[in-house]
Amino acid sequence: MTSIKEQAAISRLLSFLQDWDNAGKVARSNILNNFIEANQGKTAPELEQEFSQGASLFLVRLTTWLRLTYMTGSPLDKLLRSIGVFLSAVSSNRYLIEFLEVGGVLTLLEILALNKITEEDKKESIKLLQVIANSGRKYKELICESYGVRSIAEFLAKSKSEETQEEVQVLLDSLIHGNPKYQNQVYKGLIALLPCASPKAQQLALQTLRTAQSIIGTTHPSIVDCVLKVLCTMHLEVQYEAIELIKDLVNYDVRPALLKGLVALLIPSFKETSKLHSEIVSAAGQPHAGGARGGGAAGGHCARALQSRPIPARLPQYFVELFPVVEEHVRKTMGEELYKLFLSNAENLYMKIDSIQADILAANKVNVARALHLSGLSCSNMSFYVGHSNEDQVAYITHFQKEDVEEKE
């Protein structure tokens, strides 16, 4: 026999559930508001006490309503936050299993792909996926097995809200940790994000890639090309993250390919060189009242020309510091005075040079490949710069030597 107190609690629970079942959209919205305010942060035992050991009866109603309405475009934020009260409660493993058994993960992932659903509702869906992923390895694997990495990455690339994108980054970071079975899948998904059109998504993907790279320990063949292409962006925050990732990647087997690609990026195209030369000649040929004024005008034209190049000036400075052979030839080509100015502040070099120095920079070139070859570096000596020699590195150096022979012919 149950006590009078228990009977009263059960009666209140049944009345609450009946009110929910008979309520319309507005009334249900009010019920959810009251539920969130009264129960946010409670533990699972406290929720059971609140619902007379019948909290699961309300959770199943919430999940059922979610599955019935999420494709209609109805507001979902309060509903998802109410489900979050159950899933984020301490000792909530029972609620989590009940939610997953009715296809909760698939529903949350489908919400991310629907155009009818608002950005705010999708952010709440991401937060629920974070709660699920943080519950343990098997739950991270469940998200990945449900094609979650692809859905989450696509949403990050398309999202228009930076706040939401940051929540997605937290989720991807969680999936890369403690998930050995699918960490490579997350790693490849992050690389696939780099060519996307969203600068914020590129920045966050690059940040997360640094963490992923240290966990996985090996590199994917496509990462070099993707990172080098990102360097050509005009968004400085993306350039910075790309450079930081490149500094990490030089410690892996892709170092020779990185060096070759970066050198190729630093070589201006014929079209770009011709444009720069014409601007310098035009600026130098214009009549001015005084020499200093003329030099300032020419420097301004050159500044605009050099400023249009998206590759950061820190990259050549980085290679000068890293490779003594490159440093020697750059110093010889630039001259001592201009070289000191370059080392002191490479990023603002274009603002401090005069027309003569700009002409020197435009006219003089350094063939790094030939410099390495003519310096007499053997494969064993080259390993001092690029690590221990292996077949790929030997092939890379041989490629430089072949290019030099072809130029002489």
Overview of this structure, please?
The protein starts with a helix and ends with a helix. With 409 residues, it is mostly helical. Helix 10 (148-158) runs antiparallel to helix 11, helix 12 (183-193) packs antiparallel against helix 13 and helix 17 (270-285) packs antiparallel against helix 18. It is built from 26 helices and no strands.
Quick summary:
By secondary structure, the chain is an all-alpha fold. It is 75% helix and 0% strand. The chain contains 26 helices and no strands.
SS field, number of helical segments:
26
Portion of residues in beta strands equals under 5%
Low-confidence stretches: 287-311, 377-409
User: Helix-strand pattern, N to C?
Assistant: HHHHHHHHHHHHHHHHHHHHHHHHHH
Structural class: mainly alpha
Instruction: Describe the global form.
Output: elongated
Number of strands: 0
Report the span from N to C terminus: 103 Å
Major sheet attributes: none
Radius of gyration: 30 Å
**Mean pLDDT across all residues, rounded?**
82
Helix content: over 70%
Keywords:
disordered C terminus, mainly alpha
List the helices and strands and how they pair.
Elements: H1 4-22, H2 25-39, H3 44-50, H4 55-69, H5 77-87, H6 93-101, H7 104-113, H8 119-133, H9 137-145, H10 148-158, H11 162-176, H12 183-193, H13 199-216, H14 223-230, H15 236-249, H16 255-266, H17 270-285, H18 291-307, H19 314-322, H20 324-334, H21 336-344, H22 349-352, H23 355-363, H24 368-374, H25 379-386, H26 391-408
Helix pairs in contact: 2-5, 4-5, 5-8, 7-8, 7-10, 8-11, 10-11, 10-12, 11-13, 12-13, 13-15, 17-18, 17-23, 19-20, 20-21, 24-26
